Amino acid sequence: MKPNNFINFSVVFGFFLGLAFGIAKFDEPEVILFWTVIATIGFYLITLFFASAYIWFIEFDKTMFNKSNLEKKLELFDREFDIREREAANIRRYIRNSDFAEDKPVTAEAKSK
To answer: 92 vs 1, 4, 41, 97, CA distance in Å?
Structure first.
């Protein structure tokens, strides 16, 4: 399970657990809401700690900074950006040079051609 999915699942679980605990234990709606919020925040913080520890210890080798790999990717993106920029310039030039008006008045000179 991805860490984001684990965090989202745990927050929702904490919300419903806090809501069930608040309804079972207390009668006032303010206290039920308070304990629901406290349980949701508590589950979020605990889950965030465990997800960050998982990422730090288990996936540390995958996330290490590799400068040469990063530079290769940036050069690839730069080349792709240049290609897209040239395509956009060609499209703009085509649109600028094209005459899209269909309902121009026909003059005598245009008829003779």
So the answer is: 47, 42, 53, 9
**CB 51 within 8 Å of CB 6:** yes
Q: Would you state the structure tokens that stand for residue 14, as one six-digit string?
A: 């904490």
- Cβ contacts of 14 within 8 Å, gap of 6 or more: 39, 40, 41, 42, 43, 44, 47
Can you list the pairs that 81-88 forms with residues at least 24 positions away whose Cβ atoms lie under 8 Å? none
Cα→Cα distances 104→17, 100, 107, Å: 72, 10, 9
Angstrom distance (rounded) from CA 52 to CA 64: 15
Q: Does the predicted model carry a pTM greater than 0.85?
A: no
**55: its two tokens:** 């990422």
pLDDT tens string, the chain, 113 residues long: the values are 677 888 889 999 999 999 999 999 988 999 999 999 999 999 999 999 998 888 888 766 655 667 788 788 889 999 999 999 999 999 999 888 887 666 656 565 555 55
Q: Copy the structure tokens of residue 96.
A: 């600028």
